[in-house]
Amino acid sequence: MELAIRNVTKIFDGFTALDNISLNVRSGELIALLGPSGSGKTTLLRLIAGLDFLTSGQILFGDEDASAKSVQERNVGFVFQHYALFRHMTVLENVSFGLKIRPARSRPPAAEIRRRALELLDLVQLTGLENRYPNQLSGGQRQRVALARALCIEPRVLLLDEPFGALDAQVRRELRRWLREIHDATGHTSIFVTHDQEEALELADRVVVMNKGRLEQIGTPDEIYDNPVSPFVFSFIGESSSLPVKITNGQVWLQDRTIGLTEPNAPDGPATLFFRPHDIEIVDGCGGCIAGTVVASRRVAGTKHVEIEIGAEQHRVEIELPVEHPAATRSRIAFRPKKWKVFPASGEPLYHTAPAPAETHPATMLGRVAV
Ligand SMILES: Nc1ncnc2c1ncn2[C@@H]1O[C@H](COP(=O)(O)OP(=O)(O)O)[C@@H](O)[C@H]1O
Ligand SMILES: [Mg+2]
């Protein structure tokens, strides 16, 4: 089932929770809605489900306008973080519930409901536990029952709101992989909410990054990570360092000196330079690089994270070095980003990749992602 969200706005008592969101979801796609707490993810999911109504805009299921339809008419499946199972019902009764409560004319025969529920329990690898009660299951098992329950009604769209949010990291990682496998096996169009970027990047076909009720960027995990279109996306996804800079005639200036980076299409004026801590090279001399004093260094797994203080204004950035690098506290160090982006303080973001310091590279203007 394809889904089209068109210019959706949701206002609660004068507070705009969703601001003109547009998004097309392809049939069979697994989409992650990713954003910090309060960015509007749950609100958008509830509007798609029909649990709440739009202030303006339209939601289409296929060619059909679903905006005014009820939850039942939309036939969506849900899994929520704290969507408790019915405690007084067994696992099997929980899974078959959605079909049992259907009106007689659309309800399958009891034997068929049982067959389908058992088949789903097999899919979520809970065969043998059908007569247990929810309090006899682990958290991960309960969420698998919740998923089987959501799938039992043969939903047109599957909606998951931080379904693994309450589980510990190890179980989360396992369930994440397993959810992707189930998704590939059943082919449901699915929308998955998370505030965990790792979960979104690992699981989704496309990621929708949300911030303050707005859609910041839509793209594949690679696009989002490699080509963030805004300072928010750059700093929200993955590790990042940033510095206030100035653009003059396409040259990037840090305080009173150039740093060997050019951005020919950037308008003159203040801007912010972003780079990933691991996308840098250490240089010897400093005729066009970033230099500073090491103020802290810590080992993180296989690398060393080094914090550097730069210039009189004492801006701090972090870079990543091999563990054997001798960067000692209070020593001077000079580096150059190998990939970076400059976002003018006002106006459109710029796109720039893999420059070689001696060459000039045409930078491409990238319009804000259409929302
Ligand atoms: N029923 C409501 N009434 C008033 N404000 C709401 C309501 N539901 C959500 N909000 C507000 O809308 C914003 C987005 O909330 P939500 O969609 O739950 O964010 P997220 O799921 O991304 O954490 C928040 O500021 C929240 O307080
Ligand atoms: Mg939420």
From TrEMBL:
ABC transporter domain span: 3-237
Transmembrane segments: none
Matches recorded under CDD domains: ABC_CysA_sulfate_importer
Superkingdom of source: Bacteria
Pfam family, one: ABC_tran
Record-level Gene Ontology MF annotations: ATP binding
Keywords in alphabetical order: ATP-binding, Cell membrane, Membrane, Nucleotide-binding, Sulfate transport, Translocase, Transport
PANTHER family per record: SPERMIDINE/PUTRESCINE IMPORT ATP-BINDING PROTEIN POTA (PTHR42781), SPERMIDINE_PUTRESCINE IMPORT ATP-BINDING PROTEIN POTA (PTHR42781:SF4)
Family listed: Belongs to the ABC transporter superfamily.
Protein name in UniProt: Sulfate/molybdate ABC transporter ATP-binding protein
Originating species: Chelativorans composti
